[in-house]
Amino acid sequence: MMTLRKRIFIIASVVVLLILATSLLLIVWSGRDKTEIIEEPAATTTSPILGQQNIIPNSILNDKSEQPLTVKTPSTEEMEKNAAKQLAKIFIERYATYSTDLPYQNIKDVESMVTENYWENLSVSINDNFEATSFVGVTTKAISSSFVSWDKTEAVLSVGVIETKEENGQTNKTNKNVIINVVKIGDDWLISSFSWE
């Protein structure tokens, strides 16, 4: 003999199952009414590298609303200016970064960046017998650069730097500006001189 509680549980379970079954049937039935979208096979392109095939969905190929990406190729002059700027920044960062632990290493590091004549001037100050009495370390970071003058074979740049100096346990930061002269010899830009402003 079933108790009232068991009867109520069975009836409630049957009602819930009927509701779930009905819901499932409605979902399946409504899915059949929608028109099926048949998408064309995606276009493929073959990459010149390793013959790899790249799949490009047709939705991207057929989308006329977006403009194609254009890549601006820098002109020869822009590339030359960029090379001169990069050289000037790297030069001043290396030359003006030094410590008493590695005396004159900063000058030795820029030998390949300067003209032969200018190297003769810079290398005169190298003293292999240098002995420091206390530690001094300077780190220089180029933060800006602009052309004072420009020609295809020579240019003058103004470079802004932040100099961080450690001495006697204290650290000081200073903003400085340097004028750097560069010349093109063959295919390379080289430093011909510089001076602090």
Give a short summary of the structure:
This protein is 34% helix and 32% strand. The chain has 197 residues and is an alpha+beta fold.
Which short descriptors sum up this protein?
197 residues; alpha+beta; Nuclear Transport Factor 2, Chain: A; 5-stranded antiparallel beta sheet; two-stranded antiparallel sheet; 5 helices; elongated
Task: Please give a structural write-up.
Strand 5 (154-167) and strand 6 (170-185) form a beta hairpin. The strands form two sheets. This protein has a five-stranded antiparallel β-sheet. The chain has a two-stranded antiparallel ribbon with strand order 1-2. 11% of the residues are buried. The N and C termini lie far apart (106 Å). The radius of gyration is 36 Å and the shape is elongated. It has helices at 4-33, 58-61, 76-95, 105-109, 116-123, and strands at 43-46, 53-56, 98-99, 136-150, 154-167, 170-185, 188-196. With 197 residues, it is an alpha+beta fold. The chain has a domain at 76-196: VirB8 protein (Nuclear Transport Factor 2, Chain: A, Roll), CATH 3.10.450.
Q: Estimate percent helicity.
A: 25-40%
Can you write the helix and strand succession as a string? HEEHHEHHEEEE
- Level-1 CATH class name of the domain at 76-196: Alpha Beta
Stretches where pLDDT is under 50 for at least 5 consecutive residues are 47-51
Give a count of the beta strands, DSSP E runs of length 2 or more.
Answer: 7
CATH homologous superfamily title of the domain at 76-196: VirB8 protein
Cα gyration radius (Å): 36 Å
